[in-house]
Amino acid sequence: MLSPKCPALVLAPMDGITDAPMRALQGELAAFTYGVSEFLRVSGTPLPPHAFLNAVPELRHAAVTPSGMPVQVQILGGDPERLAESAANACEAGATAIDINFGCPAPTVNRHDGGASLLQHPLRIRAIVSAVRAAVPPDTPVSAKLRLGWDTLDAIDENAAMAAEGGASWLAIHARTRLQGYAPPVYWSPIGRVRDAIGLPVIANGDIWTFEDFLRCQDETGCRHFMLGRGALANPALPHQIAQELGIGSAGRPDLDWSVLLNRLIRWTEYYGQDSRPPMRLKQWLKLAANHGDFAHFGDVKRAATTDELLGILSLVTRERALVNAP
Q1: What is the per-residue pLDDT for 5?
Q2: Residue 26 pLDDT > 70
Q3: Dihedral of CA 103/209/232/106: which sign?
Q4: Which residues pair with 75 in a beta bridge?
Q5: Measured between alpha carbons, how far is 234 from 237 in angstroms, rounded to an integer?
Q6: pTM for the structure as a whole
Q7: Which domains are seen in the chain, by residue range?
Q8: Which of 91, 104, 217, 223 is catalytic?
């Protein structure tokens, strides 16, 4: 799934956003090497195989989207034995790679011994990775998603070393501490330090909103592997720009018109048997693109009561503004 020798661009897991329909759409757009599922929380008891099949329907089809983009299953929790059994069940359900979430900053998750709370306990990170590694088939990669630390940047050195000692195949590192949440700034240089020291592939993640951000991240980290989340949705052209720069992009560029993209997302939502009529899902995406990208029509579409109304308003304002800007 991730080769040390080949560059890669990875679709980040974002709870409530990069679900199966969004992964299908992003796979169809053909810029990402693979995607990571939203985390599945392991708490009181191990998750059975059917829980993974329900949350990650790609497992029914060789763990790839309909367009063929591989999908890695991500789990979250603090108990090594329960995580290990859950990972084994995920593989029984069809998972071909497992990722362990040590980076989620959500207070509810952290209060229940999950996500970034483990960054305060390096030996537990090693124990969890080791248990999961031992529980899944030898040819199944096990990776870890980390932040730089709970409240200090330098914690990443020990935490990354512990994940490597536990048998991680690669690491994805978000360039903030847990206490920062998603507030600026990001600190990419520690990722480069870890990459030099750890002897594993390292995926750089965090605040790559523009192509210029990507180039700075690449320069500061020395990484060949990158993970995009919010930046990919705010600017749908960005993954293709980066993939082309990395030498892994397809020759053509898909139609990135917003009406086309939203209709494709609706189609994939229906494909997976989900309710596609409420417009909230589309507004969520468009608001992100308005706040962090160049989508200029959110003020027009945010009051739409139905999906059809939203698409109609978007089509109308797009045509009107195209006429205004015509020579």
Answers
A1: 82
A2: yes
A3: positive
A4: 40, 100
A5: 9
A6: 0.94
A7: 8-246 (3.20.20.70), 258-325 (no CATH)
A8: 104
